[in-house]
Amino acid sequence: MKGIILAGGAGSRLHPVTLAVSKQLLPVYNKPMIYYPLSVLMLADIRDILIISTAEDQPLFQRLLGDGSELGLRLTYAVQPEPGGLPEAFIIGADFVGDDSIALILGDNIFYGPGMSDFLRESRSSLDGCVLFGYRVSDPERYGVGEVDEQGRLIGIEEKPARPRTNRAITGLYLFDNRALDIAKNLTPSARGELEITDVIRPYQREGKAKVIDLGRGFAWLDTGTHDSLIDAGQYVQVLERRQGVRIACIEEIALRRGFIDAEACHRRGARLPKSGYGEYVMDIAKKQMEMGLR
């Protein structure tokens, strides 16, 4: 499975902050926003990842993440000239994906919860069609919402309905088999001039091959597209990290725990940030891993 992070767009709801920098490079508490979706793909054991951004922002992402080799990843970059809808990621990334299945995640979405690595890898291994992830919200009219049957199969999906029939929002994480590439390629833009992700999902729905996994009450899904939600996300991460003494979306720690890199490589990454709490944390977990190896 290949991963795609869609990190394009103008971030217009965050203007003027995003007039000079990509939304996905803004900080969410103590790390860049893109660390969060990247960490989700890493937790699913996905190591080949395409980052789609604007031409202006691409060099900044490359400066931040490089080719991914220091994390045991293979990062590729592509440009989305203008916002054209989520399915455009499949068109832009078709050569990158090849014959593989795809995990698409939005660059401004944050997911956190117990056992996430396990259910992501299970969803990936059992993929037959597409898998969507649902989350109960109080304002479903702001999102795409999905109805499911007793087996968790999608039976209806609407984009920002005026009268939602369910409060199950469809989050910004999608798993698709390779057929999504052909579906996206043959779509017609909507009245807004964009391709719609719901139009990619519907063929799977009609065949009974669109599965929805509800993220339970122990999970957090945060969309950081507005000033208030960006602040809320930062405060959420701050509280959890301070109370639990861990780092959410620490890509070096995930790479170490998943066996993508060894403790020495992890320590080198942390040593480049010696004056920050983040760098100290990375060096500390690497030292602990090295000490365990000597026992």
Quick take:
This protein has eleven helices and 13 strands. With 295 residues, it is an alpha/beta fold. Keywords: Magnesium, Metal-binding, Nucleotidyltransferase, Transferase.
DSSP, total strands: 13
What is the distance, rounded to the nearest whole angstrom, between the alpha carbons of the first and last residues?
Answer: 36 Å
> Stretches where pLDDT falls below 50 for ≥5 residues?
none
Form type: globular
Largest sheet: 7 strands, mixed
Q: Estimate percent helicity.
A: 25-40%
Strand order of the largest sheet: 5-4-1-6-11-8-12
Strand content: 15-25%
Q: What's the oligomerization state?
A: single chain
Q: Overview of this structure, please?
A:
The structure is a single chain. It is built from 11 helices and 13 strands. The protein is an alpha/beta fold and 295 residues long. It has a 7-stranded mixed beta sheet. It has a two-stranded antiparallel ribbon with strand order 2-3. Strand 4 (48-53), helix 2 (58-65) and strand 5 form a beta-alpha-beta unit. Helix 9 (251-257) packs antiparallel against helix 10 and helix 10 (263-271) runs antiparallel to helix 11. The mean pLDDT is 94.
